[in-house]
Amino acid sequence: MRLKGKVALVTGAGGGLGTAIAKRFASEGAALMCADRDGARAQATA
């Protein structure tokens, strides 16, 4: 839990690299805000 207590804003979280980054940060304990031009895809990642 290296990122426990940290907050991350992941842009492009709706697909590809952004989704992978968001999932990894979450697995490391970060609180996330997922953003993407396609809100439904960002919500799916969240």
List low-confidence stretches. Answer: none
The percentage of residues in β strands lies in: 15-25%
Counted beta strands: 2
User: What sort of overall outline do the alpha carbons produce when their principal axes are compared?
Assistant: elongated
What is the helix content?
40-55%
Find the structural class using helix and strand composition.
alpha+beta
The largest β sheet comes out as: 2 strands, parallel
Radius of gyration: 10 Å
Order of helices and strands: EHEH
Question: What is the count of DSSP helices, taking H or I runs of 4+ residues?
Answer: 2
Mean pLDDT metric: 96
Measure the end-to-end span: 19 Å
Strand order of the largest sheet: 1-2
Architecture overview:
The protein has helices spanning 16-27, 39-45, and strands at residues 7-11, 31-35. It is α+β, with helices and mostly antiparallel strands and 46 residues long. The chain has a two-stranded parallel ribbon. Strand 1, helix 1 (16-27) and strand 2 (31-35) form a beta-alpha-beta unit. The longest helix has 12 residues, at 16-27.
Notable characteristics:
alpha+beta, 46 residues
List the helices and strands and how they pair.
Layout: E1 7-11, H1 16-27, E2 31-35, H2 39-45
Structure summary:
This protein is of the alpha+beta class and about 45 residues long. The chain has two helices and two strands, in the order βαβα.
